[in-house]
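Quick illustration, no need to memorize.
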Amino acid sequence: MADRRAEGILKTLHEVVWYSLDFGHGAEYPAMRDRLAGLELTADQAARLQKLDELAIDYILTADLDDIWPGLLEDRPDKPPEQWWWHLGAIRRGEFAGDYPGK
């Protein structure tokens, strides 16, 4: 059974990806994405999360460096590669060996 908290977190993550990242914000993105990773999602929620993940990666790879909040690119070596959202700097630099959406 899906976790009821997932919908609220997913809606907030949607706002962060669509609006905060474009304005050089989004400090909360990795922690929010982490919270969703620990929850059971419905098929619809999983599909929506996949789309948001792809949009976030596309932004990290294509946005002007001056438009990205620097904290997003500070990698967390203490986090496993499966949690790619903590390794956005390495993804942007093309140094991340793990899998991530759109790779």
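The mean pLDDT is 94.
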